């Protein structure tokens, strides 16, 4: 069995592309993600695929915390954005995590951070990280958990605590997004369609840098959030039906 890890860069990105939505290479989400990646490599972003017999089996994406798309504070950490394995039971997730840990050590980082949430598949599951030496150090509303694998006695990373204050900013239906995830385009479209059927006009805010993301995001997930009448609608993709149901619930408040 041939197993290989392949690290994408600007030269190989066009040929290999990102892992997600690879069956729809002409979709807006896929194209947006590849463009986003091409701008991140110079920041130290790592996007690594693992293949089995030349078939894609999974991937991991991670970056220095100062360029991270997650709402977490800390110094000199690497942050895992995504981990996904499509061929389970072969230890591929651990191989990818250990690759990230190795890179962080070689870069003299203080450790590796990951954000998990048991309520959605849009974040990795915590169990595989616990098996690889990660410990929980903080929590945030909506089920978010902050895990870290530290190499020494450096200060723990942490979440902000002003989540309610952030929501107070948004009375109208507002979609906050970046292109870190290729499914954000479809998530946006579903909210737009559901809102349109209810006669609600949404505002879309494209967060263009980490400063905006840290200031505006309603959850630690960072790259996608929907807020209406000072309440969180969602931080992950909803179907049109689910979006309409949630918006109707908030209309009654």
TrEMBL record:
Keywords in alphabetical order: Transferase
Pfam families given in the database record: Acetyltransf_1 (PF00583)
InterPro entries tied to this protein: Acyl_CoA_acyltransferase, GNAT_dom
GO MF annotation terms: acyltransferase activity, transferring groups other than amino-acyl groups
Highest taxon, organism lineage: Bacteria
Domain N-acetyltransferase: 1-153
Protein's recorded name: GNAT family N-acetyltransferase
Organism the protein comes from: Bacillus salacetis
């Amino acid at each position: 069995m041939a197993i290989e890890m392949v690290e994408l860069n600007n030269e190989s990105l066009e040929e290999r592309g990102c892992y997600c939505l690879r069956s729809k290479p002409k979709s807006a989400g896929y194209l947006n993600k590849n463009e986003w990646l091409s701008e991140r490599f110079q920041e130290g972003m790592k996007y690594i695929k693992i293949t089995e017999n030349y078939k894609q089996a999974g991937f991991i994406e991670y970056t220095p915390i100062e360029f991270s798309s997650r709402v977490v504070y800390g110094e000199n950490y690497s942050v895992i954005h995504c981990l996904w394995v499509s061929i389970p039971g072969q230890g591929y997730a651990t191989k990818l995590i250990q690759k990230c840990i190795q890179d962080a050590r070689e870069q003299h980082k203080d450790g590796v951070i990951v954000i998990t949430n048991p309520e959605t598949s849009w974040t990795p599951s915590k169990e595989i990280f616990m098996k690889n030496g990660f410990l929980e150090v903080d929590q945030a509303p909506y089920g978010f958990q902050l895990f870290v694998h530290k190499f020494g006695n450096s200060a723990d990373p942490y979440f902000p605590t002003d989540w309610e204050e952030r929501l107070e900013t948004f009375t109208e239906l507002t979609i906050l997004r970046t292109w870190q995830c290729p499914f954000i385009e479809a998530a946006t479209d579903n909210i737009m369609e559901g809102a349109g059927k209810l006669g609600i006009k949404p505002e879309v805010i494209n967060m263009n840098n980490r400063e905006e993301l840290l200031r505006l995001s309603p959850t630690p997930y960072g790259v996608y959030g929907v807020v209406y009448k000072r309440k969180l609608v969602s931080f992950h993709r909803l179907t049109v039906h689910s979006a309409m149901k949630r918006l109707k619930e908030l209309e009654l408040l």
